[in-house]
Amino acid sequence: MKALTIEKVGSPVRLTEVDMPVKREGHSIVKLKASALNHRDVWITKGMYPGIKEGAILGSDGVGVLDGRNVILNPGLRWGENEAVQADDFEVLGMPVDGTFAEYISIPNEYIYDQPEHLSIEQAAALPLAGLTAYRVLMSRCQTKSTDKVLVTGTGGGVALFAVQFAVALGCDVYVTSRSEEKIAKAVALGAKGGYNYKDETWYKEVETNFDVIIDSAGGASFQHLIKICKPGARIGFYGATLGKYQNLNPQLLFWRQISILGSTMGSDQDFRNMLAFVDNHKIKPIVDSVFSLEEGSRAFERMEAGTQFGKIVLKH
């Protein structure tokens, strides 16, 4: 079968012929119809991820067909029994275990779910990893309520956009940040109340009413400004640190105003089920930036690296 693999760290992914997956007890072989890129796929090709296995099939998001059913795959394997944190042997499809950038995949039966009927193949492929990550940080970790005022930083990426869509569906007043006025306008079209352009380094001074919940993936020196625009008792949920370590944090602001900083990674099996139910109940449709064929995989990676996308980059198989 055809698959996109990492042949060597620092080199582009390559479409190659690999062996069909072998049927194992407790597993099913799913014929994949579409998959989607995540930043972790790019980081793996650059060697910026632990446990890299050269020759592995990348890809965490996948939808396909099994016994005539349209199915969607939970990319998080072996979360464990503790809802609060993943088990030591937790891993994600696409590294080191073979992932979804292939024509077929063998996956344990408990990670196979019915695809929400209101979604197209492309929309469904965009959902699993980013949707799960956004749902957990927003709902499970930050316990967001409909009365909360929410800020989502870095709108345009997959997780951030899901966080916007989920918070809007919940009934929150949602605001975003971006360095692109076009992306802010698109977020407003999705239901956000407004946005701030962080190319202006003093953007946080424009905030008139502070936030109950802030969802962030950047970290770095700008994180200190997020604390300044928190209400007392606010929650900051973060699922990444693209700008590196936090700097110049004022602990007095944190403890005196009872602000919680909540780290979050992926999500549990229960989070995945809850996320699918939420998407189905509110008929949320993931934002698809662009669609490439599996043969155009290297072009899809180039688009991801350029950072200009709004929504998910999907591969049709």
What does this entry look like structurally?
This protein is of the alpha/beta class. It has 2 domains: 2-127 and 286-316, Medium-chain alcohol dehydrogenases, catalytic domain (Quinone Oxidoreductase, Chain A, domain 1, Alpha-Beta Complex), CATH 3.90.180; 132-263, NAD(P)-binding Rossmann-like Domain (Rossmann fold, 3-Layer(aba) Sandwich). The protein is 26% helix and 27% strand. The strands form 4 sheets. Strands 3, 4, 5, 8, 9, 16 and 17 form a 7-stranded mixed β-sheet that branches. It has a 6-stranded parallel β-sheet with strand order 12-11-10-13-14-15. Strands 1-2 form a two-stranded antiparallel sheet. Helix 3 packs across helix 4. The longest helix has 14 residues, at 128-141. The mean pLDDT is 94.
Outline the secondary-structure elements.
Blueprint (H helix, E strand, L loop, with lengths): L1 E4 L8 E4 L9 E10 L2 H7 L15 E6 L2 E5 L2 E2 L13 E2 L11 E5 L3 E3 L6 H5 L2 H14 L7 E4 L5 H13 L2 E6 L2 H9 L4 E4 L13 E6 L6 H6 L1 E9 L12 H6 L3 E4 L5 H14 L5 E6 L3 H10 L5 E5 L1
Parallel strand pairs: 10-11, 10-13, 11-12, 13-14, 14-15, 16-17
Antiparallel strand pairs: 1-2, 3-4, 3-8, 3-17, 4-5, 5-9, 6-7
Helix pairs in contact: 3-4, 3-8
